[in-house]
């Protein structure tokens, strides 16, 4: 049980770390940043839900509005840019990342619930916890792959050759790895608990006792003749 408790604490630690890194990656705006010298500096950085410009004027904005600062992607201030910034692949990234965050939250709650149990009474709870961790990790894996492939598209942000992935994107990768580790530990713990629950120790002990104990039949009673002299 000491080993099981230690593994459960490891799972809780990785689950908490994965959720925190997932939350920070989702909320921050450093997924795609202007990181190289050269070109115009009108684009500064972009996240899943926020974009920042520096004295930028969109070529199809006939009113000549200058965008300087950071905005939420659904802000009415940048409604003229929304169809360009929030395209189909970014909406997929937002959806997958949000689902990953929700699964990570439920996985963390499940890990806390398992740690509150005495002697790990339910293997089902541990296996449910492992499923949540794996699903959250797979969703985040799809998120970073999709953003990594389409984030470099020339038709998304201007001066694409001078931009690169920021620390928010790297933090999402870390969250994915931590979630996978928590899921692997959960599968290990849940499968061990399931096998222990299916194994009847009393019955097996009785079988071993029968096999290891040799019972000899009783000797027949015979009279003893005493001779005197």
UniProtKB/TrEMBL annotation:
Q: Which key words are in the record?
A: Membrane, Signal, Transmembrane, Transmembrane helix
Localization in the cell: Membrane
Q: Where would you find the membrane-spanning parts of this chain?
A: 89-114, 126-147, 167-188
Q: Where is the signal peptide?
A: 1-18
Q: Which GO terms describe its cellular component?
A: membrane
* Membrane topology listed for this record: Multi-pass membrane protein
The primary site where this protein sits is membrane
Please report the name of this protein according to its UniProt entry. Uncharacterized protein
Give the species this sequence originates from: Didymodactylos carnosus
């Amino acid at each position: 049980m000491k080993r099981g408790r230690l593994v459960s604490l490891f799972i809780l630690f990785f689950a908490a770390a994965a959720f925190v890194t997932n939350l920070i990656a989702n909320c921050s705006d450093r997924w795609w940043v202007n990181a190289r010298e050269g070109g115009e500096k009108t684009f500064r950085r972009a996240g899943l839900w926020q974009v920042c410009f520096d004295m930028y004027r969109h070529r199809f904005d006939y009113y000549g509005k200058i965008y300087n600062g950071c905005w939420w992607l659904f802000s009415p201030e940048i409604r003229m840019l929304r169809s360009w910034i929030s395209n189909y692949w970014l909406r997929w990234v937002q959806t997958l990342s949000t689902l990953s965050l929700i699964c990570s939250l439920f996985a963390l709650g499940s890990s806390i619930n398992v740690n509150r149990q005495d002697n790990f009474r339910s293997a089902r709870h541990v296996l449910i916890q492992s499923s949540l961790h794996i699903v959250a990790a797979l969703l985040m894996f799809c998120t970073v792959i999709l953003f990594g492939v389409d984030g470099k598209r020339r038709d998304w942000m201007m001066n694409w050759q001078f931009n690169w992935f920021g620390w928010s994107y790297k933090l999402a990768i870390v969250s994915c790895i931590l979630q996978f580790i928590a899921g692997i530990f959960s599968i290990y713990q849940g499968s061990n608990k399931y096998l222990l629950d299916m194994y009847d120790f009393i019955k097996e002990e009785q079988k071993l006792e029968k096999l290891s104990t040799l019972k000899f039949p009783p000797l027949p009673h015979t009279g003893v003749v005493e001779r005197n002299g």
